[in-house]
Design a protein that fits this description.
The protein is α/β, with parallel strands linked by helices and 342 residues long. The protein has helices spanning 3-14, 18-22, 58-67, 83-92, 111-123, 140-159, 176-187, 204-214, 226-234, 297-317, 326-341, and strands at 27-28, 46-50, 71-75, 102-106, 132-135, 167-171, 191-196, 218-222, 238-241, 263-266, 283-287, 292-295, 321-324. The strands form 2 sheets. Strands 8-7-6-9-10-12-11 form a 7-stranded mixed β-sheet, sandwiched between helices. The two termini are 22 Å apart. Bound molecules: NADP nicotinamide-adenine-dinucleotide phosphate.
Length: 342
């Protein structure tokens, strides 16, 4: 990223306190009560990184350190059943007033597992002993939040409509980013089709989980062949592509018969683009004969990065326990996009 852009990002972020300005924070437990005059808490900020994979993402470790955590401890191969013991081990080892300087980051590659672990983390707290936790498996919640927030802004500017009632197609929806994007768009009122290139069976557990956990309906669609892709796109106001890195899923020809599509967005930054013609920093740039408004992976990445940094810092800036998921990520991403679009 060019240094000017980095400086601009930092400046944009410096003005924003996500804890007080944005988050409709869901607090778990009570504020730590003390009758004595509050002294600033100087305990070392520690982040325990719970990963369900055999490694902990270096991206997320770097983000945590840059956000202000002095000690970041990766715990790999963590299972749901391990969560309670790890959380309680972390809370009981520090005085309650230091609890707000201890945080859990839930990574991995499974969105539903991460949400389950977040729920267990919350129910494992034993007030006044507490900590905060953020679930962002594979960066999916912050990336999805950023993609939907960018798209919403571009779509609204063009049509004066929100995503409520818009038809949204999500390619790569069996991945963590695609699934989280689909749920966020559906919770914003969109009529969402989730697309897989291999078969509907891969989508079924996700569609059922979306209904059961979030009360939203995702429509599963098969989109492996050119003809299927053309039909799906022709009926979508917004097309989101969250397919695997370096895979081009949609070409310009798939949009030829689409009179309806307004915005297309792609999160894949590894060439070739997931959607032909989308460039890295696009933020509403018209492309192709129909002037489709393109949103690119690094425009999304900018908001994703700031959203994740903001959520990590918010856990350090409060004396209360925060339990943060994709809803919080979307609230922060929307504010950041509004600020950028001003
Ligand atoms: N811009 C950012 O800030 C940012 C941040 C994080 C991640 N990302 C990017 O987000 C994307 C999604 O990440 P993820 O971890 O969710 O990805 P993933 O699990 O690697 O892949 C997502 C989905 O892509 C689909 N796919 C794979 N090969 C395909 C092909 N040949 N044709 C069509 N679809 C194919 C698969 O779904 P089906 O087989 O069901 O079709 C798969 O479930 C990646 O490109 C990643 O690099 C971007």
């Amino acid at each position: 990223m060019p240094m000017d852009d980095v400086a601009q990002f930092d400046q944009g972020f410096a003005d924003l306190d996500v804890t007080t300005d944005i988050l409709p924070i869901k607090r778990s437990g009570n504020p730590i009560s003390t009758k004595k005059k509050k002294k600033p808490i100087t305990a070392t900020p520690i982040l325990h990184f719970l990963s369900t994979q055999s490694f902990a993402s270096p991206f997320d470790i770097n983000m945590a350190v840059d956000a202000g955590y002095k000690v970041v401890v990766p715990h790999t191969g963590v299972r749901l059943n391990d969560t309670q013991a790890l959380v309680q081990d972390a809370i009981f080892s520090r005085p309650p007033e230091h609890g707000c300087r201890t945080a859990i980051f839930i990574g991995g590659k499974d969105a539903l597992m991460a949400l389950d672990m977040l729920t267990v983390a919350k129910t494992s707290l034993v007030p006044p002993f507490q900590l905060s936790a953020l679930a962002d498996p594979g960066g999916s919640f912050t990336t999805a939040a950023a993609m939907v927030a960018c798209v919403e802004s571009v779509y609204q500017k063009k049509t004066s409509r929100t995503l409520d009632g818009a038809s949204v197609a999500v390619f790569g929806a069996t991945g963590v980013v695609g699934f989280a994007s689909a749920v966020i768009a559906a919770r914003s009122g969109a009529d969402v089709k989730v697309v897989s290139h291999i078969g509907l069976a891969a989508l079924e557990p996700l569609v059922s989980a979306a209904k059961k956990r979030f009360g939203v309906t995702l429509k599963p669609v098969l989109g492996g062949r050119d003809s299927d892709k053309g039909k799906i796109v022709a009926n979508a106001d917004v097309v989101l592509c969250a397919a695997a890195a370096g895979v081009q899923v949609l070409k310009a020809k798939h949009f030829e018969k689409s009179k309806r599509t307004v915005v297309i967005a792609d999160v894949n930054a590894v060439p070739p683009a997931g959607i032909e013609g989308v460039e890295l920093f696009d933020f509403g740039r018209p492309i192709g004969k129909r002037g489709l408004l393109s949103v690119g992976p690094l425009a999304i990445g900018d908001i994703k990065y700031k959203t994740q940094a903001g959520l990590l810092r918010s856990m350090l800036r409060t004396d209360q326990s925060l339990m943060l998921d994709f809803n919080d990520a979307f609230a922060v991403a929307r504010q950041l996009v509004r600020k950028k679009a001003r």
